[in-house]
Amino acid sequence: MSKIAFIGLGNMGAGMAANQAKAGHDVRAFDLSAAALERARDNGCTPVASVAEAVEGAEVVITMLPAGPHVLKVYAEEVFGKAPTTALLLDCSTIDVDTARKVAGLARDAGYVFADAPVSGGTMAADAGTLAFMVGCDEPEFGRIEAALEPMSRATFRAGDHGAGQAAKICNNMVLGITMLATCEGIALAEKLDLDPARLFDIMAKSSGQSWSVTTYYPWPGPVPTAPSNRNYDGGFAAAMMLKDLKLAQDAAAKSGASTPLGAQTEALFQMFNGLGYGGRDFSAILQMLRGKLDELPK
Ligand code: NAD
Q1: Which pTM was predicted?
Q2: 247 carries an active-site annotation
Q3: 153 and 28 fall within a common domain
Q4: Do 86 and 139 fall within a single domain?
Q5: Catalytic one among 82, 102, 169, 244?
């Protein structure tokens, strides 16, 4: 049994913390939201009143926060100097590569081992303990990082040194955004051609249009019962979060000189969808914008 501090108990963190508790660890959980803390208690964690309280005596600190500024602030102001220097610090949030490297440098200066360890898989995988982790860390530390992530993981990869986990995540999510839009366009076209989108699923799932967006997250209700499309696109991976990741990809492309025109177009469409007020819906709800059915979508 390890003492784990878990910070950030939102759509993803809730299930991840629950799986650490299920694995028998002593999980002290903190979030700014009282509802999230209550849910953590129901899931076998011990809710606490602050980050400092969570990290006191911790062997592992796991953060699952919205974006780079949150991660930098929590580590710089509330973890360094408060957690024991023997604690393994794992940030599973999706943030920009520069901030991940900055936090890693600050951690090293303060005497800690830190890794960026963003995830792929969505809330269903977070709940099921089947996420894929992409880790940026010093090579010799990877074994114990992999072991600490195990209760939440289906596969854990060392992408490279600090920041490489975030680089992998940004590339992966740009591809995800593009394939989701492609899937939505296919469904919108099928509908106009009087082809049942559920039947299109049966075909695409076994044909070359197949992708995670089709088989695990089909944006039309019915074929994949666990997909957010079946609950009016509630929960899941918020469109605002997808837009954040697409912006990270475009920033990284601009800085590195990579050519990513489809990523740019996808970012523009998610910007429009967010601008219309749907940033809180699951990102697959962008289907309703392409269908011209936003009036049927709650904000
Ligand atoms: P979320 O907004 O549901 O959860 C974030 C949580 O962090 C919230 O509960 C919020 O109250 C809490 N928080 C913010 N600042 C805090 C602070 N200073 N101290 C303690 N708690 C704080 O977001 P999410 O969907 O769980 O995503 C979290 C991260 O995981 C993001 O970086 C996102 O890009 C990434 N991610 C999400 C998904 C997904 O499907 N939702 C998939 C992969 C990666």
Answers
A1: 0.91
A2: no
A3: yes
A4: yes
A5: 169
